[in-house]
Amino acid sequence: MPLVKLDIPAGIYNHGNDLDSKGRWRDSSLVRWNNNAPQPVGGFAEFANIEQLLTHGSLENSTGWTASNVTHDTTNGQVTFTAGSAGSFLQDISTDLEVSKVYVIEITVSALTAGSITPTVAGTTGSAITAAGTHTQEITLPGSFATAASTGFNTSSTAVGTVTSIIVRKKGRQSRGAHAWTTLDGSPYLAAGSYNRLVVLNGNGTVYDITPNSFTAGTEIATENLGYGGKTYGQGFYGVERERNYATAPATTWSLDNWGEDLVACSDADGKLYDWDKSAFDADPTTIAAQVTNAPTDNLAIVVTAERFVFCLGADGNTRKVQWCDRENLTVWSPQVTNEAGDLELQTPGDLMAGCRVRGRTLLLTTTDCWTATYQGPPIVFGFQKIGDSCGLVGRNMLSSVGPAAFWMGYNNFFVYDGSTAQVLPCEVHDKVFTEMNRDKLSHGWCVSNQKYNEVWWFYPGESADESTRYVAYDYRERHWLIGSLTRVTGDDSGSFDDPLWVGDDGKVYRQELGYGHGGSEVFLESGPINFADGENVARVTELIPEEKTQGDVSLTFKTRFYPNDTETTHGPFNPANPTSVRFTGRQLRMRIVGDAGQNWRLGDVRLRVTNGGQR
């Protein structure tokens, strides 16, 4: 009885129909490969919450809270209460709230042996909590609300228990753009921007709101443009109801970069260039970002070049115009013989979208093509060259650079700049990605490098999803693809911080690639069909012999069928020993691997004992 090794190459192949992926891995989540061996992607842990509206949210902080008939223990960061009188634990955040908006309050109750507690946001109460655990509720504020200490929770007179965490955030407000950098004293910072807010986070997880006073809020979530200009004039037939395929008004995104140790920022809705002065912040922690004097307005994006020029893309409302300041001088923008400021309108049919630094030049992407800007010195200063057509960027944050290369998502392909030209990046999960995405919400998508593992990740909204719930990643060293489910809305790679920092749709900043806990998400890998027999022959499997780093860290399930498109029969799951007795028959076999939660498993060769058999 021969042993047959399931020799499946690394990476996912999900392109075409099911049989096109025969002998390959077809589906997965939170799995990568190292030297052809599958293993889990690193886990994550909460580091901070940039959407926390409670100014003094930590329960270790005594400032800002009003406590009545409860005990606030700042040493242990908790609030305790005992039966006797109704109590409350509240804070005033009325200046950060808006009428008729929905807010999410999350309360972690470590113990509740009697009575109940009731969350409240600006005096509007939620549902009573009667058990321990982490409880999340949505509260819609009315047309007016209390402007006093009225956000937190109230306790019943019989309540006995302990609260260890309170978080309040605005529902739907997501960060769409982030940048991490290190200041001159070695301190790491992360900046993130949403449609109406700009924040920075320091290495201790403390969040500072640095939203400029002159900032104009943008669009919270991408929506169909049902108004004037939402459809092409003359399209369709008179008297025939239109399909709802209107143009989409994109969500507001930020482009963020560092200018030395300062932060420069631009929202595509507001269009102004802002600077956050780190030295001024060191002297006064209330320092916010300020508009840069003399800089162009109505910009779409920015990028800082390696030579320390700031490029404003789409400057002054001209969607093809690149304008740059004098070298090392952020407030000089008018070209003179005594400076290197300048501008150029690209000869392109597209609109400028984003830019990034690559080795020796700056890469600029429009909606249709790709350009490089190369520093040449006075009097020309920069030379511009088109290096690719039909390779436009699908969303402003769908681009990432890695050394001399850059990777981005287009409207129906992935692309790579290899140091000379822009080329289509062959993708073995093309059909999976481009058919399941919510194209109306692609402005919510984003891209990030994960250089510790030689990967580039794209996050995008899955079908019918509003936020980026799916990811596709490319391993540019081993040249294969990964796919899976993980909700993240923005972030940046490690370097300034020890770990990558990615932001969830709950406003929490997560340290990625940390341990192997995945918040309860299933870590799995499933193959396409593997042909075991042809013609009238069928294969009978009687024994399973897996190679694992630690025996029992994974479970294996097999699915068999006799014909393509036939109903599959499931066998298992098996938590395998060596050997493991099994019994199933078929012409085609599919294998599914599920990793145990929290384990750094490795799976090597899987061998099956196979004999010829009949269908009976």
Low-confidence stretches: 241-245
Radius of gyration: 28 Å
CA distance, first residue to last residue: 19 Å
Output the number of helix runs: 2
Number of strands: 52
What's the average pLDDT? 92
Task: Provide keyphrases for this structure.
616 residues; mainly beta; six-stranded antiparallel beta sheet; five-stranded antiparallel beta sheet; 52 strands; 46% strand
Description:
- The chain has 616 residues and is mainly β.
- It is 2% helix and 46% strand.
- The protein has two helices and 52 strands.
- The strands form 13 sheets. Strands 2, 45, 46, 48, 49 and 51 form a six-stranded antiparallel beta sheet that branches. Strands 6-9-14-11-12 form a five-stranded antiparallel beta sheet, with no helix packed on it. The chain has a five-stranded antiparallel beta sheet with strand order 7-8-15-10-13, with no helix packed on it.
- The two termini are 19 Å apart.
Topology, element by element:
Elements: E1 3-5, E2 25-29, E3 31-34, E4 37-40, E5 44-49, E6 66-68, E7 71-73, E8 78-81, E9 87-91, E10 102-114, E11 117-121, E12 124-125, E13 133-140, E14 151-155, E15 160-170, E16 178-182, E17 188-194, E18 197-202, E19 207-209, E20 223-224, E21 248-249, E22 254-259, E23 262-267, E24 274-276, H1 278-283, E25 290-291, E26 301-304, E27 310-313, E28 321-324, E29 342-345, E30 352-358, E31 361-366, E32 369-377, E33 381-389, E34 399-402, E35 405-409, E36 414-417, E37 422-425, H2 430-436, E38 446-450, E39 455-461, E40 468-475, E41 480-485, E42 490-492, E43 501-503, E44 508-512, E45 524-527, E46 530-531, E47 538-548, E48 554-561, E49 569-574, E50 580-586, E51 588-595, E52 603-613
Antiparallel strand pairs: 1-52, 2-45, 3-4, 5-44, 6-9, 7-8, 8-15, 9-14, 10-13, 10-15, 11-12, 11-14, 16-17, 17-18, 18-19, 20-21, 22-23, 23-24, 24-25, 26-27, 27-28, 28-29, 30-31, 31-32, 32-33, 34-35, 35-36, 36-37, 38-39, 39-40, 40-41, 42-43, 43-44, 45-51, 46-51, 47-50, 47-52, 48-49, 48-51
